[in-house]
Amino acid sequence: MRDQRIRAALDQHWAASDANDFETEHRIYHEDAVLEYPQSGERIRGRHNIQITRSIQPNKKRFRVRRIIGSGDLWITEFILSYDDKPSYTVSIMEFRGEEVARETQYFADPFPASPGRAPYVERMVTESRSAGPVQDRDVTTTKTVGS
User: Which partner for 124 in 80, 86, 95, 137 could form a disulfide, CB atoms 3.0-4.6 Å apart?
Assistant: First the structure.
């Protein structure tokens, strides 16, 4: 039952993030939550500070959740965060205390071109382009194996 409540809270959190509803977006956090961005070397302490740093972000942002997995105290969300229409593939690792986030770590990765040398061994996926949204490819869950 707790997992269902947390999953519902995560769905609400990501929808509010996409809508720039900062009040709803930050209800999921403990008052003393910690948010870390390892790539920029930033650690933000406290729900209030997390909310402020996100609300002053000047870029137009959009969130598109690819999947949420987890149970108990550990939940992971894969999503595409676009700032001013530039996508960044993002992973959020949330550690819960009770039904609120006590610690979150987010990792960001920009899209990059596929290696032509791998072409015979891979199947193209649906991805976000830097300018026009989804690129026509195929299913995100299938790959070919060598020799198939």
Answer: 137
The answer to whether residues 114 and 99 touch, using CB atoms and an 8 Å cutoff, is no
Task: Report residue 117 as tokens.
Answer: 């040398």
Per-residue pLDDT of the chain (148 residues; tens, 9 = 90+): 999 999 999 999 999 999 999 999 999 999 999 999 999 999 999 999 999 999 998 889 999 999 999 999 999 999 999 999 999 999 999 999 999 999 999 999 988 888 999 999 999 887 665 443 443 333 333 333 334 3
Cβ contacts of 146 within 8 Å, gap of 6 or more: 121
Instruction: State the maximum Cα–Cα separation within the chain, in Å, rounded to a whole number.
Output: 54
Q: Are strands 100-109 and 29-37 parallel, antiparallel or unpaired?
A: parallel
Q: What does pTM read for this prediction? A: 0.81
List the chain domain ranges: 2-109, 115-142
Burial class from Cβ neighbours inside 10 Å (0-12, 13-18, 19+) for residue 113 reads exposed
Residue 143 near residue 122 (C-beta atoms within 8 A): yes
